[in-house]
Amino acid sequence: MHAAGVSPSQAPPAAILAVDLYGTALVLEEFGNVIARGGAVVVIASQSGHCLGALTPEENTALATTPADELLTLPMLQPGRVADSLHAYQLAKRGDSLPVMAEAVRWGKRGARINAISPGIIFTPLAKDEMAGPRGGGYRRMIELSPAGRGGTPDEVGAVGALLLGPDGAFITGSDFLMDGGVTASYFYGELAPQ
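RESULT FIELD:
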């Protein structure tokens, strides 16, 4: 499982793109070159990538297929277009889940699988930093107004990861599993919808 990353309260936009986006792309490229038949990987993305507005088909393709060493040169990722850390985080997390689809094709030729999990607020040290940061009120509101009415636990994410990595998930590849207690559903169709 690949879960490295920094949150919007922990780093400026350039660092988020470098760690969360470029770092993940580099890991996927390198693992894809050596992964053995029967291997499986899960990338931890975020529901935040699902709340990012629509990108153009060209931008989606660029995030999915641009080689890691060229990724941070994409026009859509330049400082003039990515001004704040939340936007950088959303782009990075969308850019973590899209390559999973593209890599699934390449990895399939090696007999391996790759998937992503996009968790919502999971009570980890990163989430605790966010809850104590300037966006803490917004995160508490997301939890309160989500259909589940609570945040998640690392064990719940681990259970989905175990499915995706194990024999019961052998038919699953190139997928992104959104598990956020319904926050994204409420963001688009409920009380969390932007006004």
